[in-house]
Amino acid sequence: MPHPIMFDDADPWLGRLREVALAYPRAEEVVSHGRPTFRVGKIFCLFGSEEKLADGSRRPHPAAVVVKAEPSELAAWDEDGRFFLPRYWASSGWRGIDLDTGRIDLDEVAELVDASYRLVAPKGALAELDARG
């Protein structure tokens, strides 16, 4: 049985994330587990998530971007109250940030997506990106 769709295709944040993510070499969008994921072979970001809370409950973040973090940056991100631990992804070094809070702008989203892309993209895709300038 397929997962239900858990996003609004007309969400303006999703549209902005698509502009950013799909501009990367070899990037594609695939709906997986009911959410849009952006891949370059491997997932480099996704839209929407649930936060895993300390008491075991979860909080939905329908308009969030989830990205892979540099291991050296995880502690700082965990101290920054804007980031949350996304369910299923947090233990692998991924963090989410809710876009609806007004505490992040598109430039910062683009920087987070860029860093995540660079962590997972194959060498050929990175060479294409660097060749663009």
Automatic annotation (TrEMBL):
- Highest taxon in the source lineage: Bacteria
| GO MF annotation: an example | DNA binding
Q: Which Pfam families match?
A: YjbR (PF04237)
Keyword Amino-acid biosynthesis among record annotations:
no
Q: Which UniProt keywords apply?
A: DNA-binding
* Gene3D superfamilies with a match to the protein in the record: 3.90.1150.30
Coiled coil spans: none
Question: Keyword Lipid metabolism, does the record have it?
Answer: no
Q: Please report the name of this protein according to its UniProt entry.
A: MmcQ/YjbR family DNA-binding protein
Organism, per UniProt? Nocardioides zeae
